Each structure stands twice: as structure tokens, then as C-alpha cells.
Amino acid sequence: MSNPAVLTPDLTSEMVEFWGFKYKQAKQEVEDLQTRLANDQFLQDVVTSLRDELKIAQQKLEAMSAEKANLIIQVGRLNADRVALQHQASSLATEAVRQRTEAVIELLKPAPSFLDDSFNPVPIGFHSAKQLVSTLPRDVTNYPWQLYFIPQPPNAIPLRVDSPGQPGYWFYPFNLCPMDSPFELIVEVESNKWLYFGRYLTRPFQGYEMKLSEWLTLDEQTKMIFCSRVADHKLQAGQHASYATQIEIRQRYDTGHWNIPCYTLECVEYSIALYEAMAVAAAKLLHCEQEVLISRQSLGKRRRTPSSSCGFEAKSTKVEGSKFDQADVTQDGETAGVDGTQDDLDLTRAQGE
């Protein structure tokens, strides 16, 4: 029979250390297992939550897809209604123009012919009405008739006169129409191309204000420019109404609550002398502009005062609407009095309720 092992102090210490290590190792494994089990439960909870959210998202996506399809159908219907409304407005506007034109002819009767059959006035090219008037000879600028330069849309609402010397009508700002005396009418028929129509008298054309259908057929820029000027007409020079005020006025016109008054245009004379003087002045302006351009190019594009033969610095400025004196006013456009001056006064006024 073998003798039992004798535990010495050193051996006892080693055993304690060994089993202490085993205990810590086992304890760590238990803790790791518990952590893993907890993490697995957390992951399961996360997966379950994500599945629920995915299900909700799918339901929302299906609802949004159905709503989108419904909106597409509604937009299609609205576009169809808009096209139909535009077509209807265009037809009504055409009929309003026809009725108003017939009424003008009936009121003014066949106008006498102020032009010989052999005389065919053509548009005259120039950039600035003020410069043109300042270039006209004194025997033209000294007579008492005002010169009214009416620009193209969007800077003015288009007028209706078939040809020079013929009657017609225009939509002019309320209470600012030049009804006291005849005036010379010059209209921009193409960009920077102006046609002299003759000397005209204008009077209110009651019952033939612009129809809502005609207003709706105007382009957006023309309508907004007109509304902005209506909003500005009571303000001091250089001041402008807020955008909210312009939109409010626009809504009044869009709903037919306000309309634009109509005035007849009756030709009473045609000045061939003025037409020829305008053509000569325009040619002189063109010559001066070319001289200035050549001078600038020769001086390396440095600015230089033109020669006294031109009397102005050539500008390539589009005739634009602004606020002018009633005496020298044009409808929404640049104005020039017979003395070549340009004043800063009211231009437009809204038709009252």
C-alpha cells in the first residue's frame, strides 16, 4: 500500500492558485454566456422591431402609390380643364374683339383716306424715343401735337388698329387717356421697329371694357407688368408697391372684379412730314451710333464723348415702361414730348370697383 502524498506549503499554494484560476475562467465563461444570451435577445428584439417598421413602411408606400396615381389622374383632369378653359377664353376673346371692332366701325363710320394709294409707310428702326425726338428738326418739334410711343407687349397692352390712318381702339389706364387734343401715335410693331399710324383723337368707349376672357389670354408677363404699374401709380416717384399688393391687384383682374377701360382711336390726320422727319432722324441716330462704336473700338473700348454732330451718346436701350407725365405719357412705355423732354409722373390707374 502506497503512502499518501504529503501536502507541503509550496504544493498547497500551487493548488490554491490553480483552482483559483479555474474558478475565474469558469466564471468568465458563465458571464460571456450570459452576455451572449442577452445580446441574442436584443438582436431578436431589434429584428422584430425592424420587421414591424418595414411592414408599416410597406403599407405607407402602398398608400402613397395609390395617392400618387390618384393625383396623376386629377392633374390630368385639371390640365384638360385648363386647356378647355383656355380654348373657351380664346374663343370668347375673339368674339369680343369682333364685336368691339364692328362697334368702332359703326361709331366712327368709314374713315376718310388720309394716305395716297402710292404711299406705303414702313416701320422705322430706332432704340430711344427720347433721342429720336431730340433729333427731329425744329419745324416738326415746334407744333403742338404730343408724340405717343406705344411699345410691344409685355411693356404695353396691345392696341387694335389695322393700318395707319384707320380707326381702332386701345385699352388705356383709367383717367389718364389723352382726350383733350389730338396726338401723334407711334407703335412698336417689331422689336425696335416703330410705325407711325397718324394723328388721333381718343374717347371713352363705354360698355366695351376689356372682357375677362381677353385678360386671361394675355401672357403672364404683360399682366404682371400692368398690375405692378397699377399698384405704383399713387406712390411717389421711385417708390414701388410690394409684391403682395401687386398680387392682390392681379387677383381683382383675374376674377373680373376690375377691368381695363376701352377708348376709341379716331384718325383725324396723317403727317407725311412727320413720318419723313422720323425716318431722317432715325438714320441720323444710326449713323451716330456707328460713329460711337467705331470710336470706342479704335480707342480700345474706352468711353469717349461723341462729336457735336451727334449731340448725344448712342445707347442701345430698349424702350421700357415707367412712370411719366400725363401730358407726355405713353401707354406703359417711354414717352417723349415735342421738346424731347421726359417727365416722371403717373402712368396707370386701375378701373374702380
From TrEMBL:
DUF6697 domain segment(s): 129-279
Coiled-coil segments on the chain, per record: 23-74
Pfam families listed in its UniProt record: DUF6697
Transferase found in the keyword field: yes
GO molecular function: transferase activity
Biased composition (Basic and acidic residues): 315-326
UniProt keyword annotations, A-Z: Coiled coil, Transferase
Disordered: annotated span: 302-353
Protein's recorded name: Dolichyl-diphosphooligosaccharide--protein glycosyltransferase subunit WBP1
Presence of the UniProt keyword Coiled coil in the record: yes
